[in-house]
Amino acid sequence: MSIASYPNLRMRRTRASSWSRAMHRETQLTPADLIWPLFVTEGSSVEEPVGSLPGVSRWSVDLIAVRAREAVSLGIPCLALFPNTQPDRRSEDGAEALNPDNLMCRAIKAVRDACGGEIGILTDVALDPYTSHGQDGLLDDAGYVANDDTVAVLVDQAINQAAAGADIVAPSDMMDGRVRAIRMALEMNGHANVQIMAYSAKYASAFYGPFRDAVGSGGLLKGDKKSYQMDPANGDEALREIALDIVEGADSVMVKPGLAYLDIIWRAKQRFEVPVFAYQVSGEYALIEAGAAAGVAEREALVMEKLIAFKRAGCAGVLTYHAPLAARALNG
Ligand code: PBG
To answer: What's this model's pTM, rounded to 2 decimal places?
Structure first.
């Protein structure tokens, strides 16, 4: 790095005017950097606000299609869908995940009908929206989430979603070996172009609470997910997870939650030079909303500052519930 000294170098020179700041800006945020997570519920013409996520609702399948059109018009390239499965369709084994006519599959088809190939559809591969116990996988007799039995079901779930029209399957379960198993099954079942975005470094975080309300798994969950999600104290371990998922066939990897893990994003991008995405999770969204409501700062300023931080850290894009707000702001 070249070191000059004052007054030859006055760092404030390039900051003195708006045009100069624009010219020297190192990172750009555009609507194409945003992935919009949406919650789906049964019924038609239904909007159910999620209490713990002010401004976020669950939408029935017909209205998900309307949101998808909105996303296209805002320049948002991809949606992430999450179902709030009816209580009577949740079970010990989460079998509803494999139903070709489940809420998720109907939502995928509705988005495809409404938007054709104009928008990407990312689907979550994990069993928690379908199990009566709220864990992401199958429990053995001791109540431990059984790895290999769970992977076998996740493979079928991913194929079910791909057959319905998902463009990107995103395993968020943190089972070992699931990316390889899903990749092989996609190849063998005629879905060679379906991408895998692996939730590679997913931490056992306190920031997921509002999401669990939104998909209706929060009240069901006993205990925690620490036997599969990562310890927030670990960084090297995240790189091992990411390395594994790349070798197993992930097209892109994800770090989750977002803001508290920018170091992981940075290390992953520097080390592997693959597309790294961040999930700015529900608790992060709720904190911004609470801060804005409390008068900490203006909402849009908080949102944009946090999103540009992900880009600066090396992200290819961000899953954020603020996607439509941010896209509107960026589109002027
Ligand atoms: C579960 C899943 C979670 C999120 C996405 N997929 C929650 C969890 O692991 O309990 C969290 C997203 C958010 O908080 O916004 N497979």
So the answer is: 0.97
